[in-house]
């Protein structure tokens, strides 16, 4: 999937292209892998990777806040069986009001 903005627009109306670009840059080659381009929001090991990686390193979130954000995004995207990593990360930043950290 290369149209990240269209996927994000399924869940939010105003999409910050610079933030999307920053997430894509952060994810890098992970977006090329069939499994790594998606987030399993109900898998504890995957949630821990997101919390310890993107949420802590890029958004500066503590574990409790990050876990709550993953849960909230997972619920928001519940109907989508393939939760794209870029969309999950974008919605986490939006949910935690840390969007500015992506473009700083």
Q: Would you kindly provide a written description of the structure presented here, covering whatever features stand out?
A:
By secondary structure, the chain is an all-alpha fold. The chain has five helices and no strands. It has one domain: Orthogonal Bundle (Recoverin, domain 1). Helix 3 packs across helix 4.
Topology:
Layout: H1 4-8, H2 17-27, H3 44-58, H4 63-76, H5 85-95
* CATH architectural grouping: Orthogonal Bundle
As for the CATH topology, it is: Recoverin, domain 1
Report the principal-axis shape.
globular
Helix/strand/pairing category: mainly alpha
Tally the helices: what do you get? Answer: 5
Terminal-residue CA separation: 26 Å
CATH superfamily placement: Jann4075-like
CATH class: Mainly Alpha
For the sheet with most strands, the description reads: none
User: How many structural domains in the coordinates?
Assistant: 1
What is the H/E order? HHHHH
**Beta-strand fraction estimate:** under 5%
- How much helix, percentage-wise, in residues? 40-55%
The Cα radius of gyration reads 12 Å
Question: What is the β-strand count?
Answer: 0
Mean pLDDT: 94
Pick out the low-confidence regions: none
């Amino acid at each position: 999937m290369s149209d990240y903005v269209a996927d994000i627009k399924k869940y939010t109306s105003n999409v910050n292209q610079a933030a999307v670009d920053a997430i894509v840059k952060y994810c890098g080659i992970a977006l090329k892998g069939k499994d790594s381009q998606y987030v399993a929001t109900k898998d504890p090991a995957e949630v821990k990777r997101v919390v310890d990686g993107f949420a802590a390193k890029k958004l500066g979130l503590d574990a409790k806040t990050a876990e709550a954000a993953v849960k909230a995004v997972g619920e928001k995207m519940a109907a989508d069986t393939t939760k794209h990593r870029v969309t999950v990360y974008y919605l986490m930043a939006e949910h935690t009001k840390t969007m500015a950290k992506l473009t700083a």
